[in-house]
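Collaborator request, handled under Task 6.
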Amino acid sequence: MTATQTQLTAAEHARTMAGYIEAGTAAAMALGNRGPLRLGADGKLDPAIVEAYWRTGFYVFEDVIGPEELADLRQDVDRALAAAPAAPDAGSDPRNPSARIEGLSRPAYRYAKPLSDPLGGTDLNKGRHPVRMLDPAAADGAPDWTVNLLDGNLQLMDACLRLYGHPGLLAVAEAVNGPDFVPYNEVPFIKEPGLGPSVAWHQDGTTHWTAEDWDAGAHGFNFMTQLYPSTAANCVWALPGSHARGKADIKALIAESGSERLEGAVPMLSGAGDVMILNRQIVHGSFANTSPDRRVTLNAGFFPLRRVLNVETSNLRGQTLTYTAGRIETRSRIIQLAIDARRQRYPDEPSYRYAPLAHEAERIRWSETARAELLRNYNEQDMYI
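Structure tokens returned to the collaborator:
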């Protein structure tokens, strides 16, 4: 990072993005990969949507989340953020005890410096963010830290648990990964206006790039539920089709582009209540949020079972793990728990049938006992490939 980069103001950064945003927006709207979540009479996802997803590497499902559920999600996120310490080493706000859960084995909050790039050009996350983004200067009076992630959102916010059991979205997971799909993890991305940090260009997957049976879906996908409109200035950008071309040389792509504004990338534009599906192999990233608009994105990832079962790998914390059938079943019970939590809140909505645990559906019920025995610290069983 040069001195010039550190001196770039937020306003200057926004101006440098203007032409890039205009071109990217036009390209994004021409891709033909957005529209309602359409299921057939058999409950299966519309084949045209499946084709568009595999062709481009992402799809924007419009108006999936209704106003009532959207309000619940926003309220729960705001409650959780209100209890966040002001800095990584500060204590929680004792005035808001309802927004936190005692006894968590991992910190719920992750922080970054405003408008910074905490990952680019480092060895963090297995070094998958090889090039640093610009770090615009935050405005005078900006806080020293901003929350940019929440870890394990299903145990932090009941509305997120209910969203996790959404029948339409689980039908999408089945269409892409097969009926025996399994979970990855769940984290909300928080990009406050004038504060939200960047996420340097990367591909999420790290395990299967050299597998003999590698394919365009080898590392699964993420759902990205948008609680506010996701604009070209604050959203995730993606390089269409890159999910199907193997491991990318991101340094070379950026060098060819002449800056971190990667040529050919498009913004994943969406409205409040839209849900995007993003292939984890696609080249993607986001710029510092120098815009006046807030973005809150709820991520939830899923894998094909065959890409996880008995796989030995290391996660992003450097732990070497083997994903045995027992571990996978334990973690997958949270899907069934979420289905029942949703059923209790929306009794008139048909529930999704999760085939791997259909035999346990009557036993896995959402309750305060289940919160303590099944849900608390569930993210210790997250799987990563």
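The cover message to the collaborator said: "The CA atoms of residues 336 and 354 lie 7 Å apart. The chain has one domain: 3-381. Please let us know whether this matches your experimental observations."
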